[in-house]
Design a protein that fits this description.
Length: about 400
């Protein structure tokens, strides 16, 4: 009976190993196929990015040439072509994320199967150990035909104890691996959602650029003179906005101590959830740099995104310009103030107190919509930080 038990245990272990290796081989083949597809997607993305770089170089080259309607239209055409490629790259990244997600799911299944097999083996080993524990060495000796079989059985029992410890260790390792893979899967799913949001935003940017080009042609009637008049008026508008903010802040600083609520820390949070910056502070690639330096960062955000106060403050100005350039300016402690451009909807008024995180307005910027103004080519937040009235790089003040 003891010999039959020994043979049955071996048979169970051998069959378990056979099934494990069969399923592992199938999983490996599937993983290799997915891994090849992922590498193909990475190669495709790299090729698209090389083309994007070519259009980016074309844009920079045109921006160094003399300001003219022809050059501006060329810049816009290159921007539209680049955005189309950005869309393609994002779509391919989404396909890559789907493949990587499937790869992780297969790894989770494989790890789960391995754990199940280990548990079956462990159950058999524990059962055999339990049965052996019920018998003393004399009993085992009597059940075996020869001294050699007796010693083999004793050694086998010791091996079972070692196998038990080893299997328990492997189970823990595989369980830890499974937990890590589940965390990785959650991260991939979050990355997928972010890419889908970015894809929709890039589609809006493409529509905005096309609309901007159409509006430019209508307003200028293909006339260089009308083009110059249009953009010098935009410069005068920008200068007037900046001068007005400086004057308002200078007057408001003297009255802050008498306000009913005192301002807290001037450390700033991001005003919108998004983080992708399309134009940087004093960006050399800013298409209207020959008119004025870009005094802000532009954060790509969907039209209608809620803007939140980055710190406690008072509303210096909430200027609703209808279809023109609308903005909100807040004054904070320690000489810091902030400006939010292309506002499509206002949620605060002049002199209102806002606490950190309070909603103040909604993102705009799509050409032809309320608050967008003349120079915008798509939905985004124009975000300025000023220190004692002078524009400074917002990235130096954001976490």
């Amino acid at each position: 009976m003891q010999k039959n038990s020994f043979k049955n245990l071996n048979r169970i272990l051998v069959l378990s190993l056979m099934f494990f290796f069969l399923f592992t081989a199938a999983g490996v083949n599937a993983a290799i196929s997915i891994e090849k597809q992922i590498e193909d997607k990475k190669t495709e993305i790299n090729q698209i990015k090389k083309k994007i770089a070519t259009y980016q170089d074309n844009i920079k080259k045109k921006q160094t040439e003399a300001a003219s309607l022809k050059n501006q239209l060329s810049v816009i055409d290159n921007q539209i072509a680049k955005t189309n490629l950005d869309l393609k790259a994002t779509e391919t990244e989404i396909e890559q994320i789907k493949l990587e997600t499937r790869e992780i799911e297969l790894q989770i299944i494989a790890a789960g199967d391995a754990i199940s097999n280990k548990r079956v083996n462990l159950s058999s080993v524990l059962q055999e150990i339990h049965e052996n524990d019920q018998k003393n060495e004399l009993h085992i000796f009597l059940l075996n035909d020869t001294m050699s079989e007796f010693y083999n059985q004793i050694e086998f029992t010791k091996d079972l104890q070692v196998s038990l410890q080893q299997t328990l260790g492997e189970l823990k390792t595989q369980k830890d691996t499974l937990d890590d893979k589940r965390v990785e899967l959650d991260q991939k799913e979050e990355e997928f959602v972010n890419l889908k949001d970015d894809l929709n935003l890039r589609k809006d940017e493409l529509n905005g650029q096309s609309t901007f080009k159409d509006n430019l042609l209508v307003q200028t009637k293909n006339s260089e003179q009308k083009y110059n008049e249009l953009y010098w008026q935009a410069k005068r508008d920008q200068d007037a906005v900046s001068a007005n903010i400086v004057a308002l802040e200078k007057a408001a600083r003297g009255t802050l101590s008498s306000k009913p609520k005192q301002l807290g820390s001037s450390d700033l949070n991001w005003p919108v959830p998004q983080r992708r910056i399309t134009t940087r502070f004093h960006d050399p690639g800013y298409p209207f740099r020959y008119l004025f330096e870009h005094p802000a960062i532009d954060i790509a955000s969907p039209q209608g995104t809620v803007i939140r106060a980055p710190a406690d403050g008072y509303v210096l100005k909430a200027r609703n310009a209808g279809m023109g350039y609308s903005y909100i300016s807040l004054i904070h402690a320690n000489g810091v103030s902030t400006v939010y451009g292309h506002i499509s909807k206002f949620l605060v008024g002049n002199d209102d107190f806002v606490a950190r995180g309070d909603p103040i307005g909604k993102v705009g910027g799509m050409p032809g919509t309320p608050g967008a103004g003349r120079l915008t080519t798509g939905p985004h937040l124009h975000f300025e930080v000023r220190l004692n009235g002078i524009p400074v790089n917002p990235l130096n003040y954001l976490p």
